[in-house]
Amino acid sequence: MSRARQIAALAASEPGGALAWLDGGGGRGFVAVEPDLEVVADDLSALPAIEAFWRAEPTFVWIGWLTYEVGTAEMLGRPATAATLPGLVLRRYRATLELGARERIHGDARAGAELLARLAGSSWPEGQAWPLGPVEALMAAEDYRARVRRAQDFIAAGETYQINLTQPFVARWLPEWAGRPLAARAAAAYAAVQAATPASMGALLAVEAGRPCGRWVISNSPETLLAIELGAGEDGGDLARSWPIKGTRPRGADPAGDRAAREELTQSTKDLAEHVMIVDLVRNDLGRIAHPGSVRAPARPELVTLPTVHHLVSEVRCTLRRGWTLPEVVAAVFPGGSVTGAPKRRTAEHIERLEQRARGIYCGAIVALTPDGLRCSIPIRTGIADTAGLWLQSGGGIVIDSDPEAERHECWAKVRAFERG
């Protein structure tokens, strides 16, 4: 049985602890079950203490999340608005298995041996099928189009240049899965998504510690908010990289249609302008924490093709200033510019007016503090699974010449990974 199947089987067995499975990231992933420290907070004030623990004992991996609201609250200088998840949850694990070409254990060797034994003893049931029904929009089409037009009114008034506007969806469990443990449902959904539409920053996370876990995060995100590699920058400094995504087309139904979709995206003046705007924002964000003159970005984005969509992606990089701190880094880049807009602060206020609902972990950050650095995804293509189903959100960047109906279809294209049939 493959390692991925072993991990999914362990997750499905309701393993207790607080399972975390981070997939991808250039072929590098992590899996852990038993935390020995957990920090839960409604703001970012715990980050210095977490950083102190991490730097003092870097062999132990920390995994968790920041919600979108805890980021905007810090940015706007006010308390976080209510969300269904705590704003900050970070857990230090007794042992973490690093996945990839060369597997290795981080943390306690004895706990690592126990984790490997649990994985080896896990059995994936035969005949596992897709557990979710069709994805349904929770917002009427005309309501979403009207919100796009309101966003364009803000742009026309000079309040902002681009607004990332999202809407909610749900996929409910199929009746034949209703009697199975939630862990088994979540693991089956994530294993199928991971196999069919692998994503560079995918994740399966237990929301609550203990057994049974009442909610699971299922993330199929392709977007990296920030990756820091200690000692890999200029003159032995620490390298920071971000890969903002902006510009999307759904895959074509046949090779000719797919080729046309790629060409349309790469030749779109609108999409390129939208992309450049966000790249400039990310360059500015990284510039706040960078060694002077070290920020780099490409002249044009790269086309990245995923199983359901084509994207425009750019790598923005810098060498961090000596003595950087985790709170400084988070304050500089979070929440991500691609999921807010430009300018970031003012646009975040307009998003709150337009959406009138908490995003939670969606568009926040899934975080790993590792022995050699840090990685944060932006959890797009991400939902919360509970006993009712998988609750999703999807969105896109609105600019002055956006077509409201085309924007609505783009939202649908981005949740297709959670549909079957």
UniProtKB/TrEMBL annotation:
Pfam family, any one: Chorismate_bind
SUPFAM superfamilies xref list: ADC synthase (SSF56322)
Region (Disordered): 239-261
Highest taxon listed in the record's lineage: Bacteria
Chorismate-utilising enzyme C-terminal domain: residues covered: 141-414
UniProt xrefs under InterPro entries: ADC_synthase, Anth_synth_I-like, Chorismate_C
Name this polypeptide is given: Anthranilate synthase component I family protein
Organism: Nannocystis punicea
Classification lineage: Bacteria, Pseudomonadati, Myxococcota, Polyangia, Nannocystales
